[in-house]
Amino acid sequence: MSNDRGNAIEVRALCKRYGDYEAVRDLDITVRRGEVFGLLGPNGAGKTTTVEILEGYRTRTSGEVSVLGHDPAHRSIALRRQIGIVLQAGGVYGHITPREALSHWAHFYPHPRDVSEVLSLTGLQAKADVRSRTLSGGQLRRLDFALALIGDPELIFLDEPTTGFDPEARRAAWETMRSLRALGKTILLTTHYLDEAQALADRVAIVKDGRVLAIGPPRELGVGAGAGGTRYLVAYRSEEGELIEQETEDPTTLLHELTAQALADGRRLQELSVGRPTLEDVYLELTADA
Amino acid sequence: MPDAVLLSWRQYRLERRMFWRNPSAAFFNFVLPLAFLAGGGILLSGSQHDLNRLVPSIAGMSVMSTTFTALAYNTVFLRERGVLKRIHGTPLPTISYFGGVAANAVTNTALQIAIVVLAGRAFFGIGWPLHWGELLVFVLVGVVSLAALGVAFAHMIPNFESTAAYVNAVFLPVVFVSFYVFDSSSAPQFLRTIAEALPLEPLIRGLSGAMVTGASLSSNLDGLAVIALWGVLGIYLAVRGFSWEAART
Q1: What does each C-alpha distance from B157 to A286, B72, B77, B168 come to in angstroms?
Q2: Complex ipTM, two decimals?
Q3: Is B245 an 8 Å CB contact of chain A?
Q4: Chain A within 8 Å of B241 (Cβ-Cβ)?
Q5: What is the chain A residue with the closest CA to B88?
Q6: Which of A132, B168, B206, B232 is the most buried if burial means most Cβ atoms within 10 Å?
Q7: Given an 8 Å threshold on Cβ–Cβ distance, is A91 in contact with B86?
Q8: pLDDT of residue A226 exceeding 50
Q9: How far is A96 from chain B (nearest CA, A)?
């Protein structure tokens, strides 16, 4: 498969079957170099299966996959030197300290980052020399990030990096991801948090039942992504205080009709607003069970 | 592949450090067999004949606990905790990882055998081993075989909580039947057949020859062959069924 210099990941018609169960069906995504790409979907959508195929943990049933120009199924050391992986649940020796773990991991890579630099990037300086078994969940997650970064990878996989975090720990993790992006790294992020995708991803693919339902920048996903074209939400409160929402592809006409009628009746449309569907609206509509 | 060798060495050093920092691993590996040795020594003191059988039996048991037991525990623990999966995602070559792990097990066994040999000389009226070469051969073949069987056995253990039950369900019966058959000339034939087909009793016999009786290697070749055959089976099963990650629930 030819690999465009601009693309870090190319996936075409990817399928993964476990017996009769199709975890991933005919999935296509392209991740450009330097972008943060979000795979968004409910539990069981096939996000982790897809990511683990890209990481080389699983083999695919069919389809074409290229990661930094390599087929991950070959598990080449050359590819693994260029990627960093934050697993959904990856453990570490209980009796190792973060500094020791990073020093050990650094030897696996040809051009590792400086250990203390990574400790400070991930906010682990204060805990650098305590045994990992005494770290909190959030601190262990920082260590996951740190171990994924120590090899100075081109491409970083983050599989639900903030699941189970308290709000403060999530914000801290987001800051780390933003700083990675500022370093020019490509990031593939899976999440089932919409705000996370909205806050971090340049582009998002909404996945359900192993298929991509929509793909694009989070802000534009509402536009033309769902059934039908561009949709707007017109909302107001009736005089009885009831919230009324109407969807339309033509807000100009709808507003004209509504306001003309209201003026003719001598009523006011309280809190009148026109909005575009949020990522959440699109997500809920696309992933709702038919 | 000097790079892979160097990484093996680093993995080995990490394994050593982790081993000493984990008191329960150190206990199971070192204290337990030595407690058996001390306890047996007290019970059997006065009978050199019995002490002559106790020391190689404990030496054989030490080989099994530092390899089979330790590797079954470790493999399940690291697998269930997700450590193996994380390592599998790095450029660390598989051979380097297992090289370090195996060297760690060999070190523990060597330390144990050294302690048992010294204790035998100091407290149990047994001199220095009569055949160092034979001792080395049996320890080496025993380590490779029982280490592989430990890793292979880990594949059968579904989660860390049940590891102790699984491991002891194998370890204790094998130790008891091997000790009994090795020690008693009147053991029933079927038990003798079973014990001699398992790796531990032939290992104890070989160690006894090297350390106490002076029976030559050539007179214990059949036992060595039994241990080696278990090793071949163990390596095959260890490699074939190896899983870097916990089964998904």
Answers
A1: 42, 9, 10, 12
A2: 0.86
A3: yes
A4: no
A5: A57
A6: B206
A7: yes
A8: no
A9: 7
Instruction: Please give the radius of gyration of chain A, using alpha carbons only, rounded to the nearest integer.
Output: 23
Asked if B85 lies within 8 A of A87 by C-beta distance, the reply is: yes
Residue with tokens 């707007």: A232
User: Cα–Cα distances in Å, from B9 out to A104, A268, B19?
Assistant: 11, 79, 15
Give exposure, B226-241, as e/b (b: 16+ Cβ within 10 Å): bbbebbeebbebbeee
Structure confidence by residue, pLDDT tens digits, A58-86: 999 999 999 999 999 999 999 999 999 99
| pTM (predicted TM-score) | 0.84
Measured between beta carbons, the chain A residues lying within 8 angstroms of B159 are none
Q: Compute the CA torsion angle A65, A71, A77, A78 (nearest 10 deg).
A: -90
How far apart (Å, rounded) are the C-alpha atoms in residues A209 and B208?
Answer: 63
Q: Give, for B39, the enclosing helix (H) or strand (E).
A: helix B32-44
**Which two structure tokens, joined as six digits, stand for A187?**
């990031």
In angstroms, the CA B215 to CA B211 distance is 9
Question: What is the nearest CA distance from A48 to chain B, expressed in angstroms?
Answer: 12
Partnered with residue A223 across adjacent β-strands are A230
Distance from C-alpha of A28 to C-alpha of A10, rounded to nearest angstrom: 8
pLDDT in tens, A260-283: 998 998 888 888 988 776 777 777
Chain B residue closest to A49 (CA)? B248
The two structure tokens encoding residue A134 = 């005494």
- List the structure tokens of B226: 């039994």
Residue B83: closest CA among chain A residues belongs to which residue?
A91
Whole-angstrom distance, CA of residue A235 vs CA of residue B2: 70
Residue B195, helix vs strand vs coil = helix
Residue A27 is encoded by which pair of tokens? 């999935």
- Nearest-5° Cα angle at B8, B199 to B31: 50
As beta bridge partners, residue B28 has none
Instruction: Say if residues A206 and A212 touch (Cβ distance below 8 Å).
Output: yes
Which chain B residue lies closest to A153 (C-alpha atoms)?
A: B90
Q: B32-44 and B48-64 helices cross at what angle (nearest 10)?
A: 170
What the block records as the tokens of A69 is 């120009």
The radius of gyration computed from the CA coordinates of chain B, to the nearest angstrom, equals: 18
Q: Which of A123, A144, A162, A161 is nearest to B81 (CA)?
A: A144
